[in-house]
Design brief:
The protein has 54 residues and is mainly α. Helix content is 57%, strand content 0%.
C-alpha cells in the first residue's frame, strides 16, 4: 500500500526513483567483477552505486 499524504494522495518515496533508475543500476552492477576486486575497490563501487540512488 503506498504511503499517503494528508489529503490521501500517494507520496513519492525513494522506491519510485529506484524503479526509474533500475536499468542504469543493473548495467553498473553487470560491469563489476566481484571476483577480482580488492576490498577498497568493493567499497568504492558500493559508494558509487549509492550515489546513483541519491
Amino acid at each position: 500500500m503506498p504511503d499517503r499524504g494528508p489529503r490521501g494522495q500517494a507520496r513519492r518515496t525513494g522506491q519510485m526513483s529506484l524503479l526509474g533508475e533500475r536499468d542504469e543500476l543493473r548495467e553498473a552492477l553487470r560491469g563489476i567483477d566481484v571476483e577480482t576486486m580488492t576490498p577498497i575497490e568493493a567499497i568504492t563501487a558500493l559508494h558509487k552505486l549509492k550515489e546513483m540512488l541519491d
